[in-house]
C-alpha cells in the first residue's frame, strides 16, 4: 500500500477537490508531456515533479496533455518498435488506453503515476496492481487494449509526436504553450507561471522567474533518453 500513501499526500489537499479552477479555459497554459513508459527519466519526471502540480495549485491554470509514445517508431508494416523493447510498447498502449477510457485527468494520472512509480522501483511487471492500488476499474482499459483501439491511439500519438516543431530530440520532452523546454524541463512550473496571463495565479508562482542562460547552464544536471539511441 506504499503507493496509496504516497499518492494521498499529493492529492488529499489538491485544489481539484477543494476549490474551482482559478483560470477559465481561454486563460490556461497548455502543458504537454511527450514520454515513454519505461524511460527512467520520464518516470522520474512524472513521479517526482509533474505530480506536484496537483498539490500546489498549478494544475488549475494548465491544460495537461500526456502523450505516451516517446522515441518509438512506426515500421513500414505498421508495427511499432519501442526504445526499451516490447514491454514498453505494452505499457505505452496501456497508458494510452487509460487516458482514453478514464478521461477524468485525476483518474488516469493516478494510474499512470502508479505505473511509473513501479518503473522507478524496477517492478513495472506488477503494473496490473495499480488498478487495485488506485481503486480504478480495469475493464475499460483492457477492452481498449484488446479491441485494437489502443493500437489506434498509439498511431495517433506517433503522428502527434512526429509532427512536433521543432522535432523532439529526446524524452521527457516538455512543451509549454507550444514551446519546448529542452533540458530545462524540471523547471516547467517557472515557465507555466511566466506564461500565465490570468488574474489569479496560484501562490506557487510568487517569486518564480525564468532562469537566465547562465543560470540554466550552471544548474543543468537533467538526464534524457535520446531519440537516436538504439531501438
CATH architecture, please?
A: 3-Layer(aba) Sandwich
Could you spell the SSE succession in H and E letters?
HHEHHEEEHHHHHEEEHHE
How would a textbook summarize the main sheet? 4 strands, mixed
Query: What is the CATH topology descriptor?
Result: Glutaredoxin
Q: Superfamily at the CATH H level?
A: Glutaredoxin
Let me know the number of strands.
Answer: 8
Q: From the alpha-carbon coordinates, what is the Rg to the nearest angstrom?
A: 17 Å
Level-1 CATH class name = Alpha Beta
Distance between the termini: 35 Å
Helix/strand class: alpha+beta
Q: How many domains would you count in the coordinates? A: 1
Low-confidence stretches: 8-22
Strand content: 5-15%
User: So what's the overall shape?
Assistant: globular
Mean pLDDT: 88
**Share in helix:** 40-55%
Number of helices: 11
Q: Strand arrangement, largest sheet?
A: 2-1-6-7
Q: Your description of this structure?
A:
The protein is α+β, with helices and mostly antiparallel strands and 231 residues long. The chain has a four-stranded mixed sheet, sandwiched between helices. The protein has a two-stranded antiparallel sheet with strand order 3-4. It has a single domain, classed as Glutaredoxin. 44% of the residues lie in helices and 12% in strands. Helix 5 (86-101) runs antiparallel to helix 6 (105-120) and helix 5 (86-101) crosses helix 8 (139-146). The radius of gyration is 17 Å and the shape is globular. It has eleven helices and eight strands. Strand 3 (73-74) and strand 4 (80-81) form a beta hairpin. Residues 1-23 form the signal peptide. One of its GO terms (molecular function) is oxidoreductase activity, acting on a sulfur group of donors, disulfide as acceptor. InterPro entries: Interferon-induced_GILT (IPR004911), Thioredoxin-like_sf (IPR036249).
Amino acid at each position: 500500500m506504499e503507493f496509496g500513501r504516497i499518492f494521498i499526500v499529493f492529492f488529499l489537499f489538491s485544489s481539484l477537490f477543494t476549490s474551482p479552477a482559478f483560470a477559465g479555459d481561454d486563460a490556461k497554459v497548455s502543458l504537454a508531456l511527450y514520454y515513454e513508459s519505461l524511460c527512467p527519466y520520464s518516470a522520474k519526471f512524472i513521479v517526482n515533479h509533474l505530480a506536484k502540480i496537483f498539490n500546489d495549485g498549478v494544475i488549475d491554470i494548465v491544460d495537461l496533455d500526456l502523450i505516451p509514445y516517446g522515441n518509438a517508431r512506426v515500421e513500414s508494416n505498421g508495427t511499432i518498435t519501442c526504445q526499451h523493447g516490447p514491454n514498453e510498447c505494452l505499457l505505452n498502449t496501456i497508458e494510452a488506453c487509460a487516458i482514453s477510457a478514464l478521461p477524468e485527468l485525476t483518474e488516469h494520472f493516478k494510474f499512470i503515476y502508479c505505473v511509473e512509480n513501479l518503473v522507478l522501483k524496477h517492478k513495472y511487471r506488477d503494473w496490473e496492481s495499480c488498478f487495485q492500488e488506485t481503486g480504478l476499474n480495469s475493464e475499460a482499459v483492457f477492452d481498449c487494449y484488446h479491441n485494437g483501439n489502443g493500437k489506434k491511439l498509439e498511431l495517433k500519438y506517433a503522428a502527434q509526436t512526429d509532427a512536433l516543431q521543432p522535432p523532439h530530440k529526446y524524452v521527457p520532452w516538455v512543451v509549454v504553450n507550444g514551446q519546448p523546454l529542452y533540458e530545462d524541463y524540471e523547471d516547467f512550473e517557472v515557465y507555466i507561471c511566466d506564461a500565465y496571463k490570468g488574474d489569479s495565479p496560484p501562490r506557487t508562482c510568487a517569486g518564480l522567474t525564468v532562469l537566465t542562460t547562465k543560470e540554466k547552464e550552471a544548474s543543468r544536471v537533467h538526464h534524457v533518453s535520446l531519440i537516436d539511441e538504439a531501438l
